[in-house]
Amino acid sequence: MKISVITACLNAEAYIEQTILSVLSQKNCDLEYLIIDGGSTDQTMTIANRYKSQIDILVSEKDNGIYDAFNKGIRLATGDVVYFLNADDYFFDEYVLSRVNAQFDKYPECKAVYGKVIKVSDLLGHQLAGHELSEASLRRGANIPHQGVFAKKKVMEEYGGFDLRYRLASDLDFVTKLFLESPDQFLYFDETISFFRLTGASSSPVNQQTCRNEQAAIVKKYFGDEYAQQLLQNVNMNADYYRKWVELLLCDSSQSASSSLIDQDIFDVAIFGTVDMSAYVLADLRKNSIRVHAFLDNAVAKHGSFIGGVEVHSPEWLKKHGLELDAVIFAFEGKHDEVVQAQLSDIMSSDSIRCISWRDMINWSLK
After folding, report:
1. What's the pTM?
2. 250-365 has which fold?
3. What pLDDT digit, counting tens, does each position of 105-162 carry?
4. Residues 278 and 337 sit within 8 Å (Cβ to Cβ)
5. What CATH number has the domain spanning 2-211?
6. Cβ count within 10 A of residue 87
7. Where in the chain is the domain with CATH 3.40.50.720?
């Protein structure tokens, strides 16, 4: 199958060349490459024009945001499959499209395939992201990065492309609709697709409230108001803790949230939680030289990966290593602590493992 790779960009001179080269380096595939620029005023188009002879479609004109640019790319694409690689992202290696093509050849009836991505942050380094979709995860608004998704063009056309009512979360709308309608034709494969820099609009703190509101609207659309309210409540529940955490780090040079653990003789821990929050907790623990032996995660696809140089393991790791720890730190943004604590008690066949929430650390530090 021909795969149309679409790069939407605007004033992307810092990374656009790396993106272009990662696309043009793909081997053993039928590739069409489109760059849809929104009217850049920096050197983006100067850089892109260096490779004009290798780019199938190169457009530069004002648009109405990233999903408008994506939809324009869908209309112009001639491939069987479409994929969106933003101008600050790049492929994992030169055989990504070849491996994706093999999936479509193996499962010709599938409508889309998706894999994992590696999030790249100047502060937190590389983090593996992506998971096998489930209705439960989508009810929580837990999307998969669009940089891991390849969909047949005819499917996207049937859906009318991306819904422009959502400025930042329209990919969640598309993924949810496709999964609910055709779960058996939306295939996960255990491969890493791309590196995803956390520099885009949806990652900006300025846009976080808008993004969360759109996620809640999409969850309400497909699952009802109850789940949308749960999503918003989880965010509100954490707001005060985030503020106090920042106050500790910025206003008291001798303090961090994990300082409270030292007072309780806690020096060796594992972390169980979501990727981003786990990385934040790790950074705080390292300020006090608290040793993090492992990250724990139920997602099999993440086992063997690393966050900040610490390996991710199954919770079953505790059977062999639990007695080496003073505590397991929970780093969940939602209300998962009680369920996970019960899981760990079953694994350890007792309540011998101490479990502490990141919120507990902050509360104790403020006393």
Report:
1. 0.79
2. Rossmann fold (3.40.50)
3. 999 999 999 999 998 877 667 888 888 899 998 998 888 889 999 999 999 999 999 9
4. no
5. 3.90.550.10
6. 29
7. 250-365
